[in-house]
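Memo to structure team: turn this sequence into structure tokens by end of day. - J.P.
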Amino acid sequence: MIESITLELRPRLQICNVFIHLKKKVNSTGATVKLSKESIKITIENNTKTFLTKFVKLIPDSLSTLNVTSNWICFRVQTISDPVFGSFKTQIITNPAFNVNSLNDSFKTTELFNTGKCRIMCACCENIVSKNMYIKRILPLPDMNYDSSEWFCCKHNHSNTMHNLIPSESEIFYGPLFFIIHSNLLNHNLKIDENVVICNRCLQYLGKILPDNSLKLWNCAVDYNLLSNSQSKTATDPFNDFLLAIKTSMIGMIGEEIILQCFIGKEIQSLILKPMDWHLNLMIEPKEMSDDNIVTLQRISVVKVLYKYETDKNIIDSVNKSYCEVSFSVIRAGLEHLLASTKRFPRLHRTVTDYYIGHICLENFTDNT
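Reply from structure team:
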């Protein structure tokens, strides 16, 4: 009966926009909407579903702009004022900037540890793509967009410093989304196409050759095989890396753009994000909706964004744009998440000029108990 239900909460305006996606088409006479203070009851062809709005109090007789079209039911309803935001007479002004530390701890920088003897494998097909590695030092890089010519590494000897950040065969340098190793650690199971590093078994894109001839591999593309105990350290999840890329790129200013880019040979893949609302609360159906007639909606916090995907197009630079190079699988995972969020709304509410409207969920479902 119900494919999805989305309540977009606007506590400052004391309104709630409701979008209900039905599994089949209905006409305006075949659907009934009934509101109470803490629930929305939908009846379609004698089938009734009640959605409990535990975290928002509705004004039952304030329903407006009701629209039943095809397999969508959309309307707006007023909500009882939240004392946190004041009332129509007074308003409490708070800083709208997003707190970058509010992301879930599970999205922190991947921890690389001293594994001793190990090998690197393709995460897709488990093809071993490196020689046996004997790692002695694992060091963090300054930031995502560092210039290696501006840094040096002290070798604990006053007369010996390493200019340019080029790891030796016993070192790993790492960033939030990638790590860098010496090119001599490659074996014959890798294919080099221009500067792109590809697994020769499954043709998975693993990383790139840097100008200093070192090798940059993406955390989400490779596993580690520990030779000491035959265990493996698995690759990171591309969607978690997508969230991490946003966290490390955003500054929370009004009008900023976050541009995730992937360079494969001469091709440039770009996912452009324009945050509109850093603190938007939604109420949606549970991840697994039962056949019960009464369903408690779950509250999630999202960032509402405008987004679009582009290939081989030069982007005009400006002070409000931040760039982050990522693996293509990270762009794909982020784009799939955004497209799924866009489909929660009818077509009329999906686009603005040449951008789509989507939501990025930066946290798991909140506890409703």
